[in-house]
Specification:
557 residues, 18 helices, alpha/beta, globular, 4-stranded antiparallel β-sheet, 15 strands, 9-stranded mixed β-sheet
């Protein structure tokens, strides 16, 4: 059957967006400055399907540049996406913070401030195979300062460095832990306002969200480069205009906020995890300097740290940057099903769970709809619809096959979908989720799915994954250089090789039932009583500043 997409579609419009009219939108010209170059399309007579990537002359890997230079050939045109979304100067969160601090100093000194409210250059329109055009220019939008008076505290940076050298097993981002009390208070205030507003961007263009609207829920930390690629792949999804994408953040980042709020290709909502390290850098849920280092010897003499009696199953202590991920996941699933005005009453649709380092196939919504329609006939007992996996064999092995079995979350945590009925069942297992000694939400959910319910939670899963993982540099893998560009190239190539099996008319079930095995012991990292209490509080919607203050005052000694 014919495939109605091209690789150009997969990467189309990474910055191809018109300026929004919504008055709530905030643009940081410094954070979103674009190249003023002209996009080019080169014709080619080769009818093959390929993707090539080239490196910058000055930056051999994308670790030193925010965006990769990627050329995609779709059989008719070669599209140089670098001219669409790269700029000569790569802006990072640190750049934005420094600029904001300099502006505040300028204002305080009485000097004339140079306007940063310049018009953002946008590339001229570029035609691709489906005649889609990029907008030619954007309007001026007043800059709303994201950082309050006070800027970055050098004293706090020293504390962070001291903490790192004290025995933290992972890198702590100083940008998350170097704000003054005034800056944190201002972010908390704005974050709370945004969570209360629950703005759905682009409703005026695509209509309101209803009880059957598919929601794609994206957990975001700080990898803006990965997020650009994810959004690029979402723009190419057939039917994305009928869905809503909710970005759930655990870091208030002006550059990321500006990028997300200026997406115009589908409905968008943001929500912000309110118990992050950024907002509580030196107290729980962040890392209190009085806490034990992660590898403190529990049998040693120096165990007078305040959580000495709360090690995990392996004798190690909590690491805030790891526990934050599980807390954030738990908070977002409660909020999307119970806390959003658009979903909490009679919502009948599916929520697809994604992360910032994922890359999706253009037919992901097509196969989700197909699975919804065929589930009563193929697997009426299957509750979760798994759209992604880690299968690496030739796509022709997987074809349009689906398998049935237990929901083995750690193997099927890419782009799974569930509805409110499934969530209501899982929400009864709050105590199990909050006490299982594993800092990973997916390992915890595997145990919940295996042990908490009367019957193991079951799934119907695609053999050919519609969600690809680009996170070679993430929570569990650390590299000196992260080549996201190469991973995107591989993802596009894999989708290219799969094109014969995309947009299927039918799904063919495998006969055997796939079991998830015996429940396993957790990986640790979740032994601290405060983490368990915060988890319970999130589940019961009882967390406020007074609740956190009680946790911060808790001690095991």
């Amino acid at each position: 059957m014919g495939i109605k997409y091209s690789v150009g579609d997969l990467t189309r419009g990474i910055n191809g967006k018109s300026e929004p009219n919504n008055s709530y939108r905030k643009i940081l010209s410094d954070a979103t400055n674009r190249s003023n170059s002209i996009d080019t399309v080169q014709n080619s007579g080769d009818s093959s399907f390929s993707a090539t990537a080239t490196k910058y002359a000055s930056n051999t890997k994308t670790h030193t540049g925010l965006f990769a230079k990627l050329k995609i050939y779709d059989g008719k045109n070669t599209i140089d996406t670098d001219t669409i979304y790269s700029s000569q100067k790569r802006h990072t969160t640190s750049d934005v913070l420094k600029k904001e601090e300099n502006k505040l100093k300028t204002r305080g000194s009485g000097q004339t401030e140079t306007s940063v409210n310049k018009q953002v250059p946008v590339p001229k329109s570029i035609k691709v195979s489906n005649s889609t055009k990029l907008p030619q220019e954007s309007k001026k939008v007043p800059l709303r300062p994201m950082m309050p008076k006070g800027g970055i505290s050098s004293r706090m940076i020293k504390k962070v460095k001291s903490m790192i050298s004290k025995g933290v097993s992972h890198d702590v981002d100083k940008n998350e832990m170097s704000l003054t009390k005034e800056a944190i208070a201002a972010i908390k205030k704005e974050l709370k306002e945004e969570n209360e507003k629950q703005i759905v961007y682009n409703q005026e263009k695509f209509g309101p969200v209803d009880n059957y609207t598919t929601i794609l829920l994206v957990q975001v930390h700080k990898r803006l480069e990965n997020l650009h690629y994810l959004v690029a792949s979402l723009r190419a999804v057939k039917g994305i205009q009928d869905a809503m994408v909710v970005f759930s953040h655990d870091l208030w980042d002006p550059a990321i906020n500006a990028f997300v709020r200026n997406i115009t290709d589908f409905r968008v909502m943001q929500m912000f995890f309110p118990f992050s390290i950024q907002l509580y850098p030196l107290v729980f849920p962040g890392r209190d300097p009085k806490d034990c280092s992660w590898n403190t010897n529990t049998k040693g003499k120096n165990t007078d740290c305040q959580n000495a009696k709360w090690p995990d199953s392996y004798g190690h202590y909590r690491e805030a940057s790891f526990t934050q991920i599980k807390h954030h996941w738990w908070w977002k699933i409660h909020r999307v099903f119970e806390g959003l005005r658009v979903t909490r009453d009679n919502y009948m649709g599916h929520v697809v769970f994604l992360e910032e380092d994922h890359y999706v196939s253009p037919d992901i919504l097509h196969v989700l709809s197909l699975m919804q329609r065929l589930r009563p006939a193929l697997c009426p007992s299957c509750k979760v619809l798994a759209l992604g996996n880690y299968n690496k064999l030739n796509p022709h092995v997987y074809k349009n096959l689906v398998e049935k079995g237990d929901w083995w979350v750690t193997k099927y945590n890419l782009g799974f979908a569930m509805d409110a009925v499934v969530w209501r069942s899982l929400s009864k297992c709050k105590e199990k989720f909050c006490t299982f000694d594993d800092y990973n939400w997916d390992w915890t959910m595997t145990n919940v799915a295996q042990t908490c319910l009367e019957q193991r939670l079951s799934m119907m899963s695609l053999r050919l994954s519609r969600v690809l993982h680009l996170g070679s540099c993430g929570t569990h893998v650390k590299k000196k250089v992260c080549d996201v560009q190469a991973e995107v190239k591989n993802a596009v190539s894999r989708l290219s090789a799969s094109k014969q099996w995309l947009y299927p008319d039918i799904l063919v079930p495998l006969g055997s039932w796939k079991k998830s095995g015996k429940p396993k012991k957790g990986n640790g990292g979740w032994g601290d009583l405060r983490d368990r209490e915060l988890c319970r509080g999130i589940g019961n919607d009882t967390v406020d500043e007074a609740f956190l203050a009680r946790l911060q005052a808790m001690t095991s000694v």
